[in-house]
Design a protein that fits this description.
Elements (H helix, E strand, L loop, with lengths): L2 H7 L6 E2 L5 H11 L11 E7 L2 H16 L5 H9 L6 E8 L8 H21 L3 E5 L19 E12 L20
Antiparallel strand pairs: 1-5, 2-3, 3-5, 4-5
Helix pairs in contact: 2-5, 3-4
Bound molecules: flavin mononucleotide.
Length: 185
């Protein structure tokens, strides 16, 4: 697929089944991720790749986190969070490992990991799989990292659910690009 066509047709897919990309395909996907712009090459982006019984481990983390951190938790919510990881055969946890640097603030490193996430989504699409970036309760906060045994500098930016689309692609809306652009000439 041509690069521009791949970008324009990328679509987040919420209904995902087997198979997930092979380890050879994942190598390409991570290489694409790690070509994201990265000020001073600090390499902040890190990933946890979860498949198979790893999904049970993630399910336990989501359940435990919900019980310990949600005030109005109930059985119904616990079941929902416990089942969440099984919506795809592979989940990639997006982590930004923030390094102290005199010219590169934390936000630039978080943005670099966001760019890496988009490279992953595009590479996955180019390889004919589907994915969706989810955050929910379990990302972008200072409490979740310890459930993964991460240190304080490692921030979870979300979860890429990955697999083969099990539904038709949704129609991509036409966007009136002019609404979003100012031209200075
Ligand atoms: C940082 C971030 C977090 C997101 N979190 C969620 C989420 O928790 N649940 C969800 O359904 N969509 C979430 N989304 C939106 C989807 O990933 C997706 O972008 C959206 O459904 C639009 O589909 P499209 O990417 O095909 O345009 C998130 C997107 C971003 C960028």
């Amino acid at each position: 697929m041509k690069a521009i066509e791949n970008i324009l047709s990328r679509n987040s897919i919420s209904k995902l089944g087997n198979p997930h990309p092979t380890s050879e395909e994942m190598d390409l996907i991570y290489k694409a991720a790690l070509r994201a712009p990265d000020h001073a090459w600090l390499r902040p982006s890190e990933f946890i790749e979860i498949t198979g019984s790893g999904l049970d481990k993630l399910s336990n983390i989501f359940q435990q986190y919900a019980i310990e951190n949600i005030e109005d938790i109930n059985e119904q919510k616990i079941t929902k969070y416990k089942n969440a990881p099984y919506r795809a055969p592979m989940i990639i946890v997006l982590i930004s490992n923030i390094k102290k640097h005199n010219r590169v603030p934390d936000i630039e490193q978080l943005l670099s990991t966001a760019a890496a996430a988009q490279n992953i989504l595009l590479a996955i699409h180019a390889l004919n799989y589907g994915a969706i970036w989810r955050t929910g309760l379990f990302a972008l906060n200072d409490k979740i990292g310890k459930y993964f045994n991460l240190n304080k500098n490692q921030k979870i930016l979300g979860y890429l659910y990955v697999g083969k689309p099990t539904t038709k692609f949704k129609k991509i809306p036409e966007i009136d690009i002019e609404k979003y652009i100012t031209r200075w000439k």
